[in-house]
Amino acid sequence: MSANIIDGKQLSASIKEQLKSGMIELKNRGITPRLATILVGADAGSMVYAQSQAKTSESIGIEHSIVSIDAGAGQAVLEARIAELNADKSVSGILLSMPLPKGYDAGAAQNLITAHKDVEGVGQANLGALIQGDFTLAPCTAAAAYKCIYAQSAIAVKGAEVVIVGRSAIVGKPLAMMLVYDHATVTICHTATKDMIAHCRRADIVVAAAGKANLVTADYVRPGAVVIDVGINRMKFTDAGGETKTKTVGDVDYEGVSKVASWITPVPGGVGPVTVAMLLSNTVAAAKKFRN
Ligand code: NAD
């Protein structure tokens, strides 16, 4: 068997296209979504990500601004800036770029973002809403994995056994809540789980979100199961010319698992691009919420 591929790039493009075509109607209603990305310090990766957010946002008609704060400014300055953005009527979404430099309390800052501007959906209010079945501002990566599952009508969620490897507050736990809400039976595995392989082999859908390269191998997967790979791991390898290079791999041993699974998301090109689309989708949803 060779698994069908859930194409995240294609899914992301179609979500962005839908958002773009809805933009005219939004603007006619006087709603202009605007995303403000807060960058504390000059972490190279965060800067590249913020610039790419700006480009992608603008490509579908979302205004974007980068709010830079010196690494040494301190928690009080960051919190004051968040308060200003909360009060700014031209800003509909706020994203706090991670990681923050040492000495900052990321959770405290994140929870200061007013709920209807929390486009990453990681504050307590939006996570609470999610438990009650309101997924309007669900965490982007959990929402992306959810979208990947629902992208294929052949994949049934109601009554399915789902095993999620990883219990983070931004991926594993919120995704579990979303799928339980949709009538799946969900097990969350983590570093203290005994016999993870036995849990995974029972699953109709396995979601890997642990941040460990090639953790889920073919023997973890029941033939015909669906496998969603959330992991992003940078791996060094030596190419044919003896040069050391880096490549991105997921938490799933793609080569082995794609021989037994029915559907699989690749890395790169799976959950990652959809996460970006979900950020834009949340930004539009936040702008509508803000207006209301
Ligand atoms: P995290 O480190 O906060 O959580 C990882 C979880 O996995 C923990 O709950 C831990 O208990 C569990 N875990 C770790 N090693 C394990 C093991 N050997 N066996 C069982 N459980 C194990 O990570 P996160 O923020 O949830 O991210 C998870 C992965 O998803 C990372 O690779 C991250 O880079 C990736 N990620 C991808 C996207 C995307 O857009 N695709 C977005 C965010 C995160």
List the helices and strands and how they pair.
Layout lengths: L3 E2 L2 H21 L5 E7 L3 H16 L3 E7 L5 H13 L5 E4 L9 H7 L11 H8 L8 H11 L10 E5 L6 H10 L3 E5 L6 H6 L3 E4 L17 E4 L3 E6 L5 E6 L4 H4 L5 E2 L6 H21 L1
Parallel strand pairs: 1-11, 2-3, 2-4, 5-6, 5-7, 7-8, 8-11
Antiparallel strand pairs: 9-10
This protein binds nicotinamide-adenine-dinucleotide.
The site of nicotinamide-adenine-dinucleotide has 25 residues, from helix 10.
Word description of this protein:
There is one protein chain. The chain is of the alpha/beta class. It is built from 10 helices and 11 strands. The protein has helices spanning 8-28, 44-59, 75-87, 106-112, 124-131, 140-150, 172-181, 196-201, 254-257, 271-291, and strands spanning 4-5, 34-40, 63-69, 93-96, 161-165, 185-189, 205-208, 226-229, 233-238, 244-249, 263-264. The strands form 3 sheets. The protein has a 6-stranded parallel beta sheet. A 3-stranded parallel beta sheet has the order 3-2-4, with helices on both faces. Strand 9 and strand 10 (244-249) form a beta hairpin. Helix 6 packs across helix 7 (172-181) and helix 6 crosses helix 10. It is globular, with a radius of gyration of 20 Å. The protein starts with a strand and ends with a helix. The model has no long low-confidence stretch (mean pLDDT 96). Bound molecules: nicotinamide-adenine-dinucleotide (NAD). Nicotinamide-adenine-dinucleotide (NAD) binds at residues 141, 165-168, 170-172, 189-191, 193, 196, 209-212, 215, 230-233, 271-272, 275. Nicotinamide-adenine-dinucleotide binds at residues 141, 165-168, 170-172, 189-191, 193, 196, 209-212, 215, 230-233, 271-272, 275.
